[in-house]
Amino acid sequence: MMKIAASRVRLSEIDEDVLVVPVFKGETPHEGPLAQLDAMTSGLVSSAYNSGEIEGKRDQWVLLYQTGPRGARRLLLYGIGELDNTGYLDLQRIAGTAIRILADRNARSVAFLVRDKLDGDSARAIVEGAALGSMEEDVFKSVKEQTSHIERLTIIGESDGIDIERGVKMGSVMAEATNFARTLANEPGNTMTPTELALRAREMGAREGLEAKTLGEEQMKELGMGALLAVSRGSNEPATLTVLSYTPPADVATSSELIALIGKGITFDSGGISIKPALNMEEMKYDMGGGAAVIGAMQVIARLKPPIPVIGVIPASENLPSGRAVKPGDVVRSLSGKTIEVVNTDAEGRLILADAITYAISLGARQLVDVATLTGACVIALGEVRAAVVGSDQHLVDELIEAGEQCGERLWHLPLDSEYSKLIRSDIADVKNVGDRSAGAITAGAFLKSFVGSLPWAHLDIAGTAWLEHSKPYMAKGATGFGVRLMANFVLNRANR
Ligand code: BES
Ligand code: ZN
Ligand code: ZN
What we know:
Helix content: 25-40%
Shape: elongated
Bound molecules: ligand BES, zinc ion
Number of strands: 20
Radius of gyration: 24 Å
Mean pLDDT: 95
Low-confidence stretches: none
Distance between the termini: 32 Å
Number of helices: 15
């Protein structure tokens, strides 16, 4: 992680490899900071403008090599389009893009000029974007193709200094946790086993001061977690269920109800006996993206210490076919006592979540949020842009939507009318684990709902948003850590209400 600072130095005093300067459409090099930079660089900025290569259009950029004695050694003029394109998400995107442009261009220190007011929010956005953009993709290559040399990021702008430190801290805490979740989800199934995922969660807990414990299969059997154990039967890797508990410090009074964040931790989903096609099956290593997001969100909570008790629950398993595997048509008894007809072994996420939900309730949870790469139907409906949310409580759903809008992890609310629950009625058991082909993302939610009873609950389907097929200018392809900042914001917002 690079070192980050905010500072009020003058443009001529900057001593960094690169200064990033956002530029607007319609702006000329004859006014404001551009004129100042133009003078410092003996007309370099105006010659860039004269060439027509940069006009301030959105995402247009040019890198200038300064030969003068003062200021940054290179200038990255980055177009942001309209004058008001400097909101939180714009800054985050621009900072991420700039860092990725500079990562393999041998820059060690980067300064970022804030054109609007430098305050806590803008500082947070830049730090968050830059840190998310700086994660490298080729971690398993013996010889790295691109290596970022960036060691230091300095944010520069007009400010009264208020809240900036806090903004920098918030941004780095959020981004570090998101990158942690991304690293977990990018790791292949042969090393990221259920046991390993549990270990990494507990390691984080120990480091950050959370209470942590993991149930093994023996304990699951004793408790009666027949749904979770049905999924892990086909694998030689034992299932795990990890609980991370955050208790607010004694001096902050709390009357809040215990929130449970529950994340699907399928470390590889082959589909089991209802096996998936080979094409793209390798991507199913990220089927623990929900579990990773919960681990990341708990890291943020541990560091920022809201006055609300929260537990993170991560059920983890592989889903593989074998002579012992659960079969289509099998009936299993869940921890709740409800019996489930397993019609399709590829709908395994909802099985492990069902037992995790019941377990969370037994631990005292009174507000439940689960997050899971649950259905291909969600990918078809919303793609990689938005995750789906369904829930039993409009207020909770609204809070999650708002928390997501704040950080760019956008949700879309799908309905959950009682008619959808009819689609998962079983002839021989209390419920079956799949409906017909219709409304797949919703029937998955309807299945989970039957395990929450009357408690406020919401379910996030991140099947489309947890993974980027292609890199974005501001973010490497692969796992996105979607859900970390959303869930953390959700908890922190509650604390501020
Ligand atoms: N892990 C998958 C869902 C998934 C698909 C995640 C694509 C990410 C990308 C899940 O376990 C699954 O296989 N769901 C089935 C459910 C079906 C059998 C009702 C699906 O969506 O096809
Ligand atoms: Zn599956
Ligand atoms: Zn799955």
